[in-house]
Fold this protein.
Amino acid sequence: MSRDISFWRKVVYIGVIVLLLFPLFWIGQPATRTATGSSPGGVLAQLRAHNNLSQAELGEIDPAGESIKLATLGLRGVAANLLWEKSFEYKKKEDWEGLSATLNQITKLQPNFITVWEHQSHNLSYNVSVEFDDYRMRYHWVKKGIDFLVEGIRKNRENPRLLHYTGWITGQKIGRADEHVQFRELFRQDMDFHDSLNSEVPVDKGHGWDGRPDNWLVSQLWYQRAERAVDAGMVLKGKSPLIFHADNPMSMINYSTTIEEEGVLGQTAQQSWYEAGQGWAQYGRRQIPTSWGHNVRLGEYEQVNDELARMRERLEQLAPGIREQIKQEKIADLDPELRAALDIPEDQLTDDTYRQQIDALGRTSVTHREVAERAPEANRASAIKLVERLNNQELMSSRTSHYRSIVNYDYWAIRCEAEQTKAAVDAREFLYKAQQAHDAADLEAARTLYEASWQQWRKIYDQYPRLMDDISAEELTSAIKRYQRLLQQLDEEVPADFPLVDLVRKSQERDEGLRELYQQLGESITPDEAPETMEPAAKEPSEQPPPDDAKPDTQTDAPDATKSQPTPKPADEAKPADESKPATEEAKSTSAEGEAEQPSSEGPAANP
């Protein structure tokens, strides 16, 4: 009897399994397409098509990858974890070929896992490349990282994060590594690499001043393609839109800065800065989504504040004298100690009286709502409505200001404007020629050029004082110290009327040599004679062509009337790379983009 029960139980189980195959087939039937027609497939196939989740919608279909997925028999996650562990083992053993093969296998199993492509491309370009002594081999592995991302883009069509990160490595790794001089030159000459990239971005549109592709301009092409993908409706995940859109114009700014460091000056650099300013202004006009659920335009901050001032003035007209009246009432209600603290001058405040003054100011502040509620009866309703709009406008102004500060919007707008001026062109050209003359031991010519440069820098800082706090000002202090050593060779000292004494004063706390120079200069000047530094008004780059004195101009007041285009140093003469510097420190941005996180070498990262 027991045998019969066991037999019939097995028959029932088999029958249930067979019956379940029919709904499973109905749900999981793939979509088919024939010469006579097509079938949308089962429920799952229709859902994938509706949400653009099928592999055909996401990107290219890899037959080998699909076969490997089927071969895992549902254990794809386990297989992927094993391959990840294997890749870490190959990396520790420095078996780069084995690592490369393992990474390819991972992408076959997880072609739509974006973090795989980001992490492993970073691993190849930053962590693996630094293991080689020859900069040519380092460049080879940087290219491997870029190629890896390009393959990921084909598997994940128009994914903004992959497009953006490809631009990041092309710009930052090649343009900011210790070997950036050699890398940039190798990139310019790498025609085969350019041909392979042309299928993804028009490299021919990324030519620099010498007619060859420049890594910063090619990175900008990747950023622009990423922006077009977002504008077309692709969802940007895991990346701040503020930083995402800032990297496009920053590429042009980085290009302009780099070619000046390489000795490409004059009209070429001036035109480059003009284009950078136009790109930064365009960025300011773009609507940037915020975490508060609304959009802001960074370039419209002045208009927002102008409207805010008009609304405040209108409120005072609807409730004349009410704000001051309420304030005096609140002051009268204060304790005598707090009331007395309000009248203490700032330079006479102690720790206790400072806290008392802050407390008193908080208690006597008057809100717009309080003013509106005390307005005359005839104006009260209008004043209350105005206050609601005024509070919203103040909130918008505050949030726009916060976003502008993250990307240092005002500074870069001012920098792009200043670099277009004739004074900036002359200052940099005089300084470049002075250093060349100094290296050639032509001390008198070097001194004349140095002093001509200081005069031009003085004009720049008088017009744009904020630039004195810039990193380029720190680079200028190195030139000042060279000028000081030059005068010591001539048995002379820096003159008391040195035009950049205020820059020396700002920098002397960070530099012992400049501290001694400032002490020397301080003996011969008084505080009243020292140049004053004023905070500049934030000026937005104009959409119109620059004024006559800012347009590219080859004229100069240089003592040397001959103004030939300087030639950058060849790669072989460049300073050797610092092999001890970790590769992860090479990817530093010049803007707020510096906040962008790089994938860790220990596992998949969430965001480049």
